[in-house]
Design goal:
By secondary structure, the protein is an all-alpha fold. The chain has one domain. It is 75% helix and 0% strand. The longest helix has 22 residues. The chain is elongated, with a radius of gyration of 17 Å.
């Protein structure tokens, strides 16, 4: 949650411990320090799409896409609650840290390749991914737009499944 609300600089052991109502010692029981915590968040984010895609069964491309949208919507709610790393937070962090940017870029390449392989529609998947990124960025700045996710998802689904 700290990464989402305040950026990477807000991820501080003392502030986190105080916000969680735990001692710094309790924090250090789980992580050797701030660096390990940040690495853990980034690793979890990097593995998100492969984990989501493993949950999608052997369905048609359209059903896979519908399942993917449901899972992404659930994940977005969890990220807003601080239970999983947020795309918006990770992208903001990548914008100020070149090493994180390189990892995010590699993870995005993997995400797009996996989506293309599993869902097909090679020519449209990257466009759909970019729509999602724009939606995430705008949702961070204008939270009320997040309510439009079902409508945006429907339009993305139509784009992927259209024959034109």
């Amino acid at each position: 949650m700290a990464l989402l609300r305040g950026g990477v600089e807000a991820v501080r052991v003392e502030k986190l411990a105080r916000a969680l109502g735990v001692t710094k010692g309790s924090f250090y029981w789980h992580f050797t320090g701030r660096t390990e915590l940040l690495e853990s968040l980034l690793r979890e984010w990097e593995n998100e799409v492969p984990e989501i895609l493993q949950q999608i069964g052997p369905e048609s491309a359209e059903r896979k896409f519908r399942a993917l949208v449901r899972l992404v919507e659930q994940r977005a709610r969890l990220s807003e609650d601080g239970k999983v790393p947020s795309d918006a937070a990770i992208f903001a962090w990548a914008s100020v840290d070149p090493a994180v940017a390189r990892r995010v870029n590699r993870a995005e390449e993997v995400r797009i390749r996996l989506l293309k392989r599993i869902l097909g529609h090679w020519d449209r998947i990257e466009l759909v991914y970019l729509v999602w990124l724009g939606f995430v960025a705008r949702g961070q700045r204008v939270p009320a737009t997040r309510r439009r996710f079902p409508e945006i998802a429907r339009m993305m689904r139509e784009l992927v499944s259209s024959r034109k």
